[in-house]
Backbone:
């Protein structure tokens, strides 16, 4: 996948004298709670420079000194200047330590790494975004990019599934996006609660009813692997072509630059030729045991 | 009157439930259909009652609920435009298994299921077409229920905590 305009890939960085294994120090500007276990962190380089440019779908290796380093997708706007943004769910040692950071604290950042969502292929056609849970975070940069240059794209449809109403990410933004004429936003939850009058059911149910232009549309899916598999199958049933569907894969990572083999998935090295793959490129591996 | 029939016909025939049906079968369905409007809060049916009709939603939203002592009606699934509400009418004992409550004012095509069952018995080709469609509704709901059961978006640590608590 060719890099988006403005993005810098790994080879350029090495040629430019940047060692991809050495973290750049960033300071925490702000931490905002999205829900009970998810927060968005805004970071700026401690050296006073600008954050690295990135393309929608790329990730950084974030290093908490003395605790550990993890891959996290970038959730901010790839086109506008501003702080580096990561939306993180607390699941274990490093993510919990990140949740305890305060404005002014330091963090090491390596990246951006990996492939990106093919936003350039969507120019002039419909864009269907299918997200599950924290999977909306790596797709938010696509939404910023498309809404920032709305006339270049066709219809935009966002289908989002969360576990419960209180776990829905970016609630205010979802309302604003859905309230504008720019985007069809459909949200469903696996479990309803009192006072919730929205949809209850899985995200594949939303795909069944989504307004799709089968011929040209491009679909970008991110969420738990099973959700991505079922969503891709539902999109295929709706008549979409395999080569217009993209998914973002996750595996544990160490180097993040294709050196250690930690993230190997079949013949794929997720950190280097992923995390974003065309569905037909990865389909044979999805759902297979012991890949 | 003519307009009403035309609206009913176009609403019914546009539903995914009717996709691929033969003209003669569509005519049978049309003869058993009528249009209804339901305000928010109204129940379409209650668990345990005879399933002698079912609905296709034209617009609005319906919640399928189970009534739970001390917890009230628990919504387990919602149905939106194009969806079928009620699949128990074709499967003996033809009794509703859930409550169905209107969450957003609805325009519905309501179908006389008692008459349709008779048509199914009299014309096995029509009966098979109905079974196929209701099986599709059931299969989609079973897939959805399985995915919901997996709790895909759950925090892995919470799951582990629950598992540990149970083992201890
Ligand atoms: C390319 C890429 C992009 C990512 N983007 C994001 C992002 O934008 N936001 C975000 O919150 N996370 C993201 N992740 C996942 C994130 O890297 C992990 O959640 C993190 O590594 C967990 O580290 P930990 O030390 O907190 O948990 P650990 O202590 O390593 O693990 C704690 C528990 O969490 C489970 N766990 C670990 N990783 C994951 C995972 N990926 N999914 C589900 N359960 C997991 C473990 O099995 C274990 O049960 C991304 C991962 C990859 C590979
Ligand atoms: S993390 Fe080292 S090769 Fe991918």
Residues:
């Amino acid at each position: 996948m060719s890099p988006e305009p403005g993005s810098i890939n790994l080879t350029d960085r090495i040629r430019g004298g940047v060692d991809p294994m050495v973290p750049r120090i960033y300071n925490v500007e702000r931490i905002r709670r999205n829900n009970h276990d998810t927060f968005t962190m805004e970071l700026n380089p401690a050296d006073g420079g600008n954050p690295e440019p990135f393309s929608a779908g790329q990730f950084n290796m974030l290093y908490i000194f003395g605790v550990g380093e993890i891959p996290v997708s970038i959730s901010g706007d790839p086109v506008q200047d501003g702080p580096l943004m990561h939306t993180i769910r607390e699941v274990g040692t490093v993510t919990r330590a990140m949740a305890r950071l305060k404005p002014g604290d330091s963090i090491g950042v390596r990246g951006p790494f990996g492939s990106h969502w093919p936003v350039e292929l969507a120019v002039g056609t419909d864009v269907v975004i299918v997200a599950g849970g924290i999977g909306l975070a790596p797709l938010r940069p696509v939404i910023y990019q498309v809404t920032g240059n709305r006339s270049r794209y066709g219809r935009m449809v966002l289908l989002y599934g969360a576990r419960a109403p209180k776990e829905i990410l970016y609630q205010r933004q979802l309302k604003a996006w859905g309230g504008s004429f720019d985007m069809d936003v459909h949200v469903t939850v696996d479990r309803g609660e009192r006072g919730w009058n929205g949809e209850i059911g899985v995200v594949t149910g939303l795909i069944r009813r989504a307004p799709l232009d089968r011929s040209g549309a491009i679909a970008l899916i991110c969420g738990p692997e099973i959700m991505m598999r079922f969503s891709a199958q539902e999109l295929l049933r709706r008549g979409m072509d395999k080569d217009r569907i993209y998914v973002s894969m996750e595996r544990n990572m160490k180097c993040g630059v294709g050196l250690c083999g930690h993230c190997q998935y079949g013949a794929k090295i997720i950190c280097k030729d992923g995390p974003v793959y065309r569905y037909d490129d990865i389909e044979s591996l999805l759902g297979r045991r012991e890949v | 009157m003519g307009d009403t029939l035309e609206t009913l016909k176009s609403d019914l025939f546009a539903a995914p439930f009717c996709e691929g049906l033969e003209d003669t079968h569509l005519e049978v369905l049309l003869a058993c259909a009528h249009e209804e409007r339901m305000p928010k809060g109204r129940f379409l049916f209650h668990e345990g009652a005879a399933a002698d009709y079912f609905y296709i939603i034209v617009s609005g939203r319906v919640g399928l609920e189970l009534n739970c002592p001390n917890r009230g009606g628990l919504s387990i699934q919602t149905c939106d435009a194009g969806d079928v509400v009620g699949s128990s009418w074709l499967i003996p004992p033809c009794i509703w298994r859930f409550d169905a409550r209107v969450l957003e004012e609805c325009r519905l095509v309501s179908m006389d299921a008692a008459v349709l069952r008779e048509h199914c018995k009299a014309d096995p080709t029509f009966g098979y077409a109905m079974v196929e469609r209701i099986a599709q509704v059931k299969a989609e709901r079973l897939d959805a229920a399985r995915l919901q059961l997996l709790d895909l978006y759950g925090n892995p640590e919470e799951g582990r905590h629950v598992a540990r608590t149970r083992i201890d």
